[in-house]
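so the lab meeting is tmrw and i was supposed to have these ready like two days ago... anyway. pasting both below. for each one the top line is the aa sequence and the line under it is the structure tokens. i havent really looked at them closely yet so no promises
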Amino acid sequence: MSKVEPGGKGFPEQGRPESKPTLKKTPEGLVRMRAQAEKDVINILWFRNGLRLHDNGSLHNATEDKTAKLLPVFIFDGETPVTKECEYNKMKFLLECLEDLNEQFIEAGAKLYCIQGNPEEVLRKLKHRVQINRVCFDQDCEAIWLERDNNIRNYCVSHKIEVFEHIGATLWDPLEIIEANGGTPPLTYSHFCHVTKGIGEPKRPLPNIDLSTVSFYEIPDSILAELKTFPGVPTPEDLGFYKGDEEKIYKGGERTALKYFNRRMAVEKEAFLDGSFLPNRRDPDILNPPKSLSPDLKFGCISVKLFYWSTIDAFNQVNEKKSSSYLIVSQLIWREFYYAMSANNPFFAEMERNPVCINIPWKEDEQALEKFNAARTGYPFIDAGIRQLKKEGWIHHVLRNALSMFLTRGDLWLNWVHGEKLFRTYLIDGDWAVNAGNWLWVSSSAFEKSLNYSYSLDPRVYGRHVDSHGKYIKRYIPELANYPVEYIYTPWKAPLEIQKKAGCIIGKDYPEPMIDHDEAVAQNRQMMLSLQKDLLTQEKGQPNHVRPSGDLEINLFFRIHD
């Protein structure tokens, strides 16, 4: 938690504290002085991400000051906590998280105020009518939020409002990691682990706050009239999002997330008892996966510290010894790595201006990109993944890898930024840092072995490792539902008689492959080899940011098994 006090250092000064008018001791002046003295005193709890009450450091900061009443708010500014690239399922999930919070506040005799507008302007209007002691919020460590948060900090400092920023979305403060590494982020996963080990273990989760002991502020109608406040939590339609072909699978909200979290911990502990770990990675089920907690981590419905320590404590309890490795929580540590990499890099989701991205000369082919986005590649495993993504807002990591490699170095040789935007728009767990980091890796633009050409995921084979009977394809591409299992991944190879019997003619009812995979892989490998030689000559060695820890790291990432 960092506290910014009036006159504090670290942020550029944008203005001076407002000068107060000199009041003469006239009857009118005394009335004005009494009105100022009688202003309600409040602390604002500003929700962005971190949509929970458990392990909420900002809630602790806002309620420890007993001289002020608590005002919980969420501000719809067109950005927070999702970017402008957002579809129905993602917005619906966010609103369910807010509804769950609101219901919990209502039980305590309060409410979550949902306001539309610019955060700084909202503060200005409130400051005019009430005395604000504190503004408390969780850190949004991604660089794209820096301008917004600095504006708020500077406004508060210039108006003698205390700012409390809590590290709630990550295990460590990414800026502390960068400082501990000498001012730059650790450029490899293994080095990141080394640096964080030096910093020390993450903090334990904070205790819950009893809301029945909290004094809440109710905004009077006179102030509500000046703010664009929704009567309750808005609907997607209120915000301009309308349901099309989407199907709602995941429900947002802290209480739902905690229920599934407890089930997940039981599965993790059972795996530890069996002498294994990461059961969802060891035996991936792309057709009927357990309720993923990645959206809940993205929106902060589940505390990452609670997740980390519950896993570590379960392992230690089963094995009667303390774990000294991050291996059992590697998914959480990768998340931390990407947050640190992007914390001071506003161009992390770009190619040209991104200092850790190799500028690969990708092709520009609008027609190919359109076919990919429309799930018309002719490769059933790829098209099924795109259809599920757009319909449900979530796909398994196996599918994410397959789609990412097919679009980039595997087959189409198209820029990874197209896929990054597609995922960030539709995935309910798609955040800026982790999503971009994964695309940088798979496209061999960063983190993975520089311009790696040694292997490629084959869309005709990769899916069979996790779904040998093609049930996943049949669910999301019903045109192929009647195809024999031996042709489900390569329907164009089926004799015409079988195609007719299955009721789906390739080239008519379902497209032929848009590209020959074997030819594309051979060509792309040659391009990668040539680019790699040029890069190594130019850089006089392999750049640090494209150097993985080893083959095991790569295999775990792509679910490659011997």
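ok protien two:
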Amino acid sequence: MFPERYGFICGLLLMLVGTSLQQDPIQPLEGSPETYVGGTVTLQVPMAAGVAQGFWYKNGVPVTGMARYSVSISGVMHQLTITGAVSGDAASYIYFNTFVSPAIVKSGFLTVHEPVNGGLSEWNPWNNPSCSVTCGNGTITLTRSRLCNNPAPRYGGQICPDPLTETVSRVCVRGPCPINGGFSEWSQWNVAQCSQTCGSNIMTTATRARACDNPIPQNNGAPCTGDTQEEKQTLCEINPCPGSGICNDVVRSSEVGYRYHPTDCDKYIMCFYNPNGNVLGVYRSCPFGYYWNQVTFRCVASWKVSCPLEKCTGACKANYKMEGSCRSYWKCGQNRTEARCCPKGFSFTADEGCRANFYCEDVCPTPYIAREVCDKRPSWNNPTEYNFFVGNLGWQQATCASRTAFDLLDCGCVETAQDTCVASNEESFTSTAMPSWLNVSNVVVSGGMARFLQNSLMNLDVKVKSTECPVLKLTFRESAAVTGRRVLASSSDCKEGNTLLVVADDAGIQFETVSWYGHVSRMFMSTQGIPRSQLKTVSVLYKDNYLIGVIESDNVKYISQLHAPDVSIMACGLTIGSDGTSSTAFVGDVDMVSIYKCVPGNLI
């Protein structure tokens, strides 16, 4: 029996599955199998395992031997595969198997499509991006897209060859960008005219400026941050006044003269003028960490003052001694000075810093010193009276309490001794015979003067304890031929090493004390305006842990004091004219030497 004889198919189920060459779809016959020209399709029928291959027919003609047609069994699937499909492969296909009972006959129609190439749709609108900058000129990148769906490629048709996206860059212009301001270079310092035409340590104001024009802020740009003007105090470039002393080169306010200390920024001098022509200058100190401000006449924090005597400028030591405490010192940093204290049990030593010293018991910061400048002055005619300054009312007179007198150094009334203070030892050299307590070597006594040569000295065998308020008064004049450091007086070298040195140099008088544990305190007083050949009296006294120095000559008197605890200045006697070292000795005339164990009433 041959299947091609049958022209009809009744009650049979035939499943054919079509698969394209590119996508390999598998479709059952009853699912309308299909492929496209050039594609590959497989028609298959599930059978029981082991069943022999049946017969495949195309439009009733056996496919056996047809080119591009192959029959196979894959697992339980009986397959007919057509490769390189052409339009003529579109036909009715039948699978017939008589090797099973009942026999199986399945059929279906294979559709072969012509390829459909893809076509492009219309462009979508351009996108709306932001400009690449918020100010100035930038770019905008515009893009648009289209699809390959008009029609979409099918049945092996080609995809669209043209691009599906398009990009265009265009310039975008925003408002002008903000320009932040920048400073120009500082101008040169503009120094204001000095208030005096001659003098020393006279200050004036110097200013300099810069502008916010490099560049100028524009378009809401930020302005410059910082000062457009700077101000500092600077020394006037003027010559000293002829024959002037330290109280001539001052700035006066309310009849009182003010000026910088000759060597230190944390000290100053107040000058008081007696109507009779006498002048009294008082050296004063600012509190710990403060400098004198010659413009405002006040002590202010050191960093607020441009001091012409600043030691922390240029090449300098990292720190240096602050007088008044064995623990205090000034620390240099960034062209400014900061007050510092060594820890307890340490003392400051120049070039070495804080070193262990359990004998150093000073308070640091140093004992309180008022920032306010003394607002009192002597009444001149009566030691128990004084004047005090009251704003617009000017100077007003006041009287000290009973048994007190005005002390300008303390700026107030202090208790006075009831006993008259006279010298315990005094020599005016009216005779060549020396008292027992005074021994001289290479000293020529003549005409009421004791003349000292290069190798002369005078030993005073006078011992005064520190608790007895020792005072030395020395009236002398110097030879103009000798320069450098000249020793006027020194204490004897006791076994503990207590030492006092009174030294003259070309600028003034230096008072030095060395405590029994080695701490050195120094106090400098200027002799500006006092010729060497002029008689002057230098006094030094020690009272209540303070060393007080006084210089007097003709109508001027200068007073200074320094906190110097644990000092003995005359416990083992004194030497005039030498300290026993190679330092330059005193050369000149001594008019009088006096030793007190009390404070003379007219000393301070």
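from a quick look at the 2nd one: The two ends are 159 Å apart (CA to CA). The chain has four domains: 3-113, 250-373, 376-415, 425-596. will dig more after coffe
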